[in-house]
Amino acid sequence: MTMVNAFGADDFARLSPAEQALIARREKVMGPAYRLFYERPIHFVRGEGVFLFDPDGNAFLDAYNNVASLGHGHPAVVEAITRQTAILNTHTRYLHENVIDYAEQLTATFPAYLSQAMLTCTGSEANDLAVRVARSVTGGTGIIVSSLAYHGVTATVAEFSPSLGESVNLGPHVRTVAPPDPYRETPEEARDRFGRDVQTAIDDLRRHGIKPALLIVDTIFSSDGVVPEPKGFLQPAVEAIRRTGGLFVADEVQPGFGRTGDTMWGFERHGVEPDMVTLGKPMGNGYPMAGLVVKPEVTAEFGRRSRYFNTFGGNPIAAAAGLAVLKVLAEERLQDNAQDVGAYLRAGISTLAGEFSCIGDVRGAGLFIGVEMVSDTQAKTPDAAITTRLVNGLRERRVLISASGPHANVLKIRPPMVFSRGNVDTLIEAMRDTLQSL
């Protein structure tokens, strides 16, 4: 999955001399592990709202970057970061009102049983901390994830991020389960089968002498191809991990902060109670901040045995950025906007599906959309080739999306939450034009 929509060596010869020179400099100094998007990579120098700009001033409509959830360079966040930078930045071993204010306002957006926050710098770090907490509290080490999950890049978290590819080995304590397939399963089949598979994974861990510690899922299953439905399908799986003494962790790094429209947090759509929720990416609208929101009884048990400290996690500047994000989300009613504009976007793509038989399924919640591309609508045959051509064709029309899923055939569309109906019209027309050209 990590190679979906990636620039490859075969694409190099088609680039301009200036593009080739910049890529050569990058590879020389940064090494071969980094990847670039698109067959023809893009050089960006500025962002504003839902647009990114290249050195020639060309504007690209950003329908992919959920990190800048409020739009690129939102003035309220820029002002908050700038103001606090000029005053003080230090760590959480000193008292500071910003940090406490942020933790209070953040946890107020959660159900009352999730009332304490632990702050980190990245989502990877948050998931790493969640594993540490779960192991300490449960005494187990086993981890259950979806079959193409991405949860981060630390050594611990990469071991349960199968989307990183076959060369990044899963840990012997990790079991994977296929997510529901709303295109090929009924809601009842999806719910029951996913619950059974999680129980099977639990049983297999036990057979190998491994005590389960946690089930962790990205509640929109982004890397698995975007699976928002059926609502409630997580319930049997959560019940299964709880019966064995393990914890349930909701990874809200991608779907959280109102992106799904109908709820603030993705797990709420399923009527389940996480023991921990991990956060990241949009938390600071681009400023590196992340964290956990945790049940106090879990924190109490962990804190009795361990101490936690993070030099930059929860610093006053991060807290200022986070406070600004929460304020803008509320004042600009961006959760409502995600609901409204997301529904308009799904309707627009559904109209395209009536024109182009390669669009097999349109699904999503709020401004998180998955579009399954197929070569045969009757057989529902995945078509990765046309997916790649469409993503790169849109790039040539200065519209940015990506792709995911086990067959690399699901368009992944998750624009900044300030996306408008007018922006949707631009996206739909670019998709129509690209599909006609194919």
TrEMBL record:
Please name one Pfam family that this protein belongs to.
Aminotran_3
Origin: domain of life: Bacteria
**Family of this protein:** Belongs to the class-III pyridoxal-phosphate-dependent aminotransferase family.
Q: Which InterPro entries match?
A: Aminotrans_3, Aminotrans_3_PPA_site, PyrdxlP-dep_Trfase, PyrdxlP-dep_Trfase_major, PyrdxlP-dep_Trfase_small
Originating organism:
Aureimonas glaciei
Instruction: Could you list this entry's UniProt keywords, alphabetically sorted.
Output: Aminotransferase, Pyridoxal phosphate, Transferase
Q: Which Gene3D superfamilies match?
A: Aspartate Aminotransferase, domain 1, Type I PLP-dependent aspartate aminotransferase-like (Major domain)
**What is the name listed in the Swiss-Prot or TrEMBL entry for this protein?**
Aminotransferase
MF terms per GO, please? Answer: pyridoxal phosphate binding; transaminase activity
User: Taxonomic lineage per UniProt?
Assistant: Bacteria, Pseudomonadati, Pseudomonadota, Alphaproteobacteria, Hyphomicrobiales
Reported cofactor(s)? pyridoxal 5'-phosphate
| CDD domains reported for this sequence | OAT_like
